[in-house]
Design the sequence.
């Protein structure tokens, strides 16, 4: 990235000193613009914190999270909910409705899920399901 900064800066200096040499002003403007873009992106790449995670580590973490059920244990005809030291079974055919909610709280949002069955209703927010 430092090489790109040096090369782009050198090209800009050469173009500015030899500005009248080019037949077209548009060509000079295009070269200067592209060099400034290269300098901006190279500088941002150098000074901004880079991604410390590579593709493999992200994929491994996503696979682990995908296989984790959280507070739910799924079965063929329903699922168990592990909440507050209790384990409750909810059958798929007893579910009347499912609602998603999102509430703005200061600078973030609290999201959750409400499941209403024939017997009772259940509310889960993002803190409950982790």
Sequence:
């Amino acid at each position: 990235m430092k090489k790109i900064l040096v090369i782009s800066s050198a090209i800009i200096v050469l173009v500015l000193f030899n500005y009248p040499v080019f037949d077209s002003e548009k060509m000079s403007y295009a070269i200067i613009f592209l060099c400034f873009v290269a300098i901006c992106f190279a500088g941002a790449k150098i000074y901004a914190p880079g991604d410390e995670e590579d593709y493999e580590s992200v994929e491994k973490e996503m696979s682990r999270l995908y296989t984790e059920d959280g507070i739910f244990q799924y079965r063929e005809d329903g699922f168990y909910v592990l909440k507050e030291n209790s384990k409750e079974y909810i059958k798929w055919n007893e579910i009347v409705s499912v609602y998603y909610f999102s509430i703005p709280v200061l600078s973030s949002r609290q999201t959750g899920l409400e499941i209403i069955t024939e017997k009772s209703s259940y509310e889960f927010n993002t803190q409950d399901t982790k």
